[in-house]
Amino acid sequence: MKINRKRMMIGGAAIVFLLAAVAMSEPGRAALGRMMALILPEAKPAIETSGASTSAPQSQDAEERARQRHGWNGGITTSLIRGSIIYFDKDERAIEQWAVTIYRRYPEQARVEINRGNGVEVYGFDGTRAWREGTARLTEEAARDIRAMVRIWPERLFVTRARGAGYRESGQRVEPAENGTVIQDQVEMEDSIGPTTISIPDRRRVSYYINRESAIVEMASWLEPDDPRRRIDDEGVSLMDVRVEFGRWKTVGGVMWPMEITHSQGGRRDFRIEVNEVVVNTQIDDAKFRER
Question: Percentages helix, strand, coil for the chain, rounded to the nearest 5?
């Protein structure tokens, strides 16, 4: 092959110059590529592209992976859950078990019906206030416990983030398991239920623990004031730990639901919900979420 000596000398000098530029900047690397194309016009790229970016896509964050694994999406507006609720005494012995029906309209309306044999206890949250049938005025503790029925579900993670709540990933933790250990990703959500302008807003920082391998939400936890008449951010307020564990997963309507929800408060298990049936996107009358 015949080579033009003058062209080769100019090209060599240009390469030296551009190699220095490469070490200094990204534009230098681009310039080197253009110069090499001029010097060696016969060269072909190893892979031809159509102009699309060739950079690797960013990986999903922990909540996104969990949402995809759970099958949760914005088209889910309601859920109806039937099962039983079991209450435990201070020694964590089961003392009561009743049939329960729970209606949910997302993001944060709820109605709970507990059939205690001699009557049905009904309470709920209408998106603004907690209520209980037959009770004119709720204590702060009763109102807090009713609002908790909005917060104790794993899909609360997806619902609150979809509303634009503050989200951050706060590391990993290792949990013992039957066959060794399980690594969980811990994520935190700024979770508010109801108005934030009232004197004692229900604003909590909720941590969710997501199995790193399966992307299943295994537990949620947050702190509550011992005295429900105190704000979470009051100076010197005494706090207790609340934990909710999710288990026995089942796919219904394309969405994964826990068939067992165990609630603990202050380090003691106080109730468990065992689910028999889940109905997704069933029609629920607006009146269900309001006190009659």
Answer: 25, 40, 35
